[in-house]
């Protein structure tokens, strides 16, 4: 066991004297942790510090993109956020651990995709890539990055599963709270408050990064920008997606497209599920010759209708695949569903997969993939003791497998100068700059809304896809959430449902989808801000300035017979979130006749009527089936398309203004498909609402970068009575 004691004699003397002073006062301090080493921090960029110790294995940052240094610099600098002296590391025979300070009232958020709440304090998580398994840290994207309410974030960079104790687990030499006798004391706590976050990995070392910011949002921005910022999806990706039944043939799909046309529903992407392949679970990655005899023709026909094709696959290779022999030398010791598991840390393995996909799908015009089962339960995936030809540890391989696949496909699309918008079921550190959206089989509507918000805290995008419903009401409510999410998708792979499957609400569903499509100019600009500034387009309320968290604690009552270890329960508001700079979305769940909405400080207005609704308060609203409640900030400028028809050459805009404030909005636009925007091929139009001499608001638009916008006519609409 390696336990390094403090080397410096004078420091020992100094610490000993503090020990004497504090012991005398009846409590210990952080600086007494003498069997741990102090971490040494090095500033890497404005507001970003790094410390490391020991040797780490597979570096998750091998699968992320380089930082946007300029944008990080523009955020300015901030001081190191906590006492450097109170940060420690320890290497033992088989674990590397750290200890970082935590204030008594500090709240901790983040740690990846979570469905049941956001404040992570007073809990222990084993951050493991897995199917969602409750609040224990098993999830599709268990990102070891947390944000503190004190204005900083910490990233533990390791491909091993991070076990993190967030304010629980008290060292005997730490700052301990008062001991209370449980028999007589009311305030006895099953989880005594601790003054630290402690985390460990089963490895020989790790890296730790600290990100600061003036606000919670800035911390997240810095984290995202450290990995290149967020993504800018192709415009079609923000349209309507429909995944057909797994047994569908090309003819079935063509028929379904016709039904979309006759029912007057927009359609931008068709997703094919496992049955497009000649063999699935494990996968052949080859088209099924009976269901899809002429895939090139099929993809082309859809392309002519403006519909993209997305293909489902999981990574496990069937012996029946035409790439089997080529990939075989690069696969691990164990199979998944009897399919071989490629080791994509090896460049040759990546080449085999990409060549096969290029030749068989991408060259035909396939727009992207839905990469499934890169998480999976232990009983499905490879065991921790599996071996891989590169020598990569099986646990690390599992933790970053999804990221490896994202990185590989992203690089490919970038080289083709074509943007993809794809789906994946697992992500990890630094995922914001990969063109993938997460999804799950978990189907709790409320949980899906929480997931959308929690995803934003660690650089992730989440789709609360709709699959089926038990009633027309549920169908509408889920559709509304999906329409206000990063990826609007009906995943009918097993239900075979269509948007019009509940005829009594078909018009409402159509209007909902149309509203989302009309908001494209606003949303696309929000994604540009994600790309350039790291601002998540769909965000948790705690990232919004002026939002006061409404968390309450419900205390459990100690009862010697039934509940001798009573614990407090945290009650959080997680059923609302922000979309773009100024829209607050408050989804309604089946059966809800009214709901509360927590408004951040400032005047807020109803999106549909423009009427004032409140300022920094909790309002109760009566729900309407046909509307998802949306609220808009004072001065908000919301550019919307007037028509969503694809054949429409008229790209005119209605620019809505809410409230009384003067304001301006920088409307971004580009070709919507390529990376040419990175070379300056985009237009930026300033939409400005200013008061004229008579005190009334008047709108103007000005091109500010000499590039003509794709939008033709602009009409202003003053939503709030002036
Ligand atoms: C699941 C996935 C579903 C669907 C299905 C097909 O793992 O989450 O969305 O694609 O596989 O078999």
A few lines on this structure:
With 722 residues, the chain is of the alpha+beta class. It is 20% helix and 25% strand.
Question: What can you see in these coordinates?
Answer:
The protein is of the alpha+beta class and 722 residues long. The chain folds into four domains: 30 residues; 386 residues, Sandwich (Immunoglobulin-like); 182 residues, Glycosidases (TIM Barrel, Alpha-Beta Barrel), CATH 3.20.20.80; 78 residues, no CATH class. 20% of the residues lie in helices and 25% in strands. The strands form nine sheets. It has a seven-stranded mixed sheet. The chain has a seven-stranded parallel sheet with strand order 21-20-19-16-15-14-22. The longest helix is centred in the middle third of the chain and has 22 residues. The radius of gyration is 27 Å and the shape is globular. The chain starts with 8 loop residues before the first helix and ends with a strand. The N terminus is likely disordered. The structure holds beta-D-galactopyranose.
Indicate the topology.
Blueprint: H1 9-24, E1 37-38, E2 42-45, E3 48-54, H2 69-74, E4 88-91, E5 96-101, E6 108-110, E7 123-129, E8 138-139, E9 145-148, E10 152-157, E11 162-166, E12 196-201, E13 205-212, H3 216-226, E14 240-243, H4 250-262, E15 269-272, H5 295-304, E16 308-313, H6 324-327, E17 331-336, E18 339-342, H7 347-360, E19 368-371, H8 394-415, E20 422-424, E21 436-438, H9 445-455, H10 472-483, E22 488-491, H11 506-518, H12 520-533, E23 538-540, E24 552-554, E25 569-571, E26 577-579, E27 583-585, E28 594-598, E29 603-606, E30 612-615, E31 618-622, E32 630-633, E33 637-641, E34 653-657, E35 663-669, E36 683-691, E37 697-703, E38 714-718
Helix pairs in contact: 3-12, 10-11
This protein binds beta-D-galactopyranose (GAL).
Beta-D-galactopyranose (GAL) is lined by residues 246, 273-274, 312, 372-373, 441, 491, 493.
């Amino acid at each position: 066991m390696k336990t390094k004691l403090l080397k410096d004699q004078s420091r020992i003397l100094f610490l000993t004297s503090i020990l004497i002073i504090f012991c005398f006062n009846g409590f210990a301090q952080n600086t007494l942790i003498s069997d741990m080493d102090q971490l040494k921090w090095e500033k890497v960029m404005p507001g970003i510090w790094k410390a490391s110790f020991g040797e780490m294995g597979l570096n998750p940052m091998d699968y992320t993109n380089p930082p946007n240094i300029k944008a990080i610099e523009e955020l300015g600098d901030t001081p190191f956020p906590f006492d450097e002296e109170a940060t420690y590391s320890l290497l033992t025979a088989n674990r590397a651990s750290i200890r970082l300070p935590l204030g008594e009232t500090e709240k901790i958020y983040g740690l990846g995709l979570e469905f049941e709440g956001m404040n992570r304090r007073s809990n222990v998580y084993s951050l493991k890539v897995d199917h969602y398994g409750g609040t224990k840290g098993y999830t599709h994207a268990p990102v070891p990055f947390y944000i503190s309410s004190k204005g900083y974030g910490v990233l533990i960079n390791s491909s091993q599963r991070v076990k993190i104790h967030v304010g629980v687990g008290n060292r005997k030499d730490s700052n301990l709270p008062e001991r209370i006798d449980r028999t007589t004391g009311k305030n006895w706590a099953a989880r005594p408050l601790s003054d630290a976050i402690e985390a460990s990995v089963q490895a020989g070392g790790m890296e730790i990064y600290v990100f600061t910011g003036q606000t919670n949002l800035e911390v997240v921005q810095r984290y995202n920008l450290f990995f290149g910022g967020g993504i800018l999806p192709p415009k079609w990706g923000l349209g309507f997606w429909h995944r057909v039944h797994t047994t569908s043939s090309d003819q079935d799909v063509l028929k379904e497209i016709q039904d979309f046309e006759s029912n007057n529903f927009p359609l931008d992407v068709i997703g094919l599920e496992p049955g497009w392949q000649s063999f699935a679970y494990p996968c052949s990655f080859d088209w099924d010759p009976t269901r899809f005899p002429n895939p090139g023709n099929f993809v082309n026909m859809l392309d002519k209708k403006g519909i993209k094709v997305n293909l489902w696959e999981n990574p496990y290779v069937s012996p029946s695949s035409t790439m089997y022999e080529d990939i075989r030398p690069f696969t691990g010791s164990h199979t998944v569903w009897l399919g071989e598991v490629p080791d994509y840390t090896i460049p040759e393995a990546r080449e085999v997969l990409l060549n096969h996909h290029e030749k068989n799908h991408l060259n035909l015009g396939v727009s992207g993939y839905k990469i499934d089962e890169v998480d999976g339960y232990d009983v499905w995936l490879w065991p921790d003791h599996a071996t891989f030809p590169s020598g990569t540890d099986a646990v690390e391989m599992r933790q970053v497998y999804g990221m490896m696949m994202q990185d590989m496909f992203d690089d490919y699309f970038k080289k083709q100068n074509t943007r993809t918008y794809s789906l994946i079921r697992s992500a990890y550190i630094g995922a914001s700059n990969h063109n993938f959206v997460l999804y799950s089989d978990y189907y709790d509507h409320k949980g899906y809304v929480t997931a959308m918000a929690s995803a934003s805290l660690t650089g992730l995008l989440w789709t609360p896809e709709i699959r089926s419903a038990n009633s027309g009401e549920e169908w509408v409510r889920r559709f509304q959430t999906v329409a206000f999410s990063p990826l609007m998708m009906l995943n009918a792979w097993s239900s075979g449902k269509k948007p019009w499957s509940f005829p009594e609400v078909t018009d409402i569903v159509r209007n909902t989808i149309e509203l989302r499509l009309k908001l494209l100019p606003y949303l696309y600009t929000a994604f540009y801000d994600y790309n350039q500034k790291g601002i998540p387009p769909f965000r948790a309320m705690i990232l919004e300035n002026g939002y006061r968290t409404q968390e309450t604690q419900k205390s459990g009552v100690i009862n010697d017979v039934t509940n001798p270890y009573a614990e407090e329960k945290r009650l959080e508001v997680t059923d609302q979130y922000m979309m773009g700079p100024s829209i607050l979305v408050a989804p309604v769940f089946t059966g809800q006749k009214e709901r509360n909405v927590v408004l951040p400080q400032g005047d807020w207005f109803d999106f549909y009527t423009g009427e004032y609704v409140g300022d920094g308060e909790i309002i109760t609203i009566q729900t309407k089936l046909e509307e998802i409640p949306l609220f808009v900030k004072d001065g908000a400028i919301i550019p919307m398309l007037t028509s969503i028809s694809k054949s429409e050459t008229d790209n005119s805009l209605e620019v809505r203004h809410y409230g009384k404030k003067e304001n301006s909005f920088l409307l971004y636009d580009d070709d919507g498909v390529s990376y040419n925007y990175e070379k300056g091929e985009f237009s930026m139009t300033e939409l400005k609402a200013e008061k004229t001499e008579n005190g009334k608001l008047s709108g103007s638009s000005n091109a500010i970068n000499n590039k003509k916008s794709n939008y033709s006519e602009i009409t202003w609409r003053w939503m709030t009575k002036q």
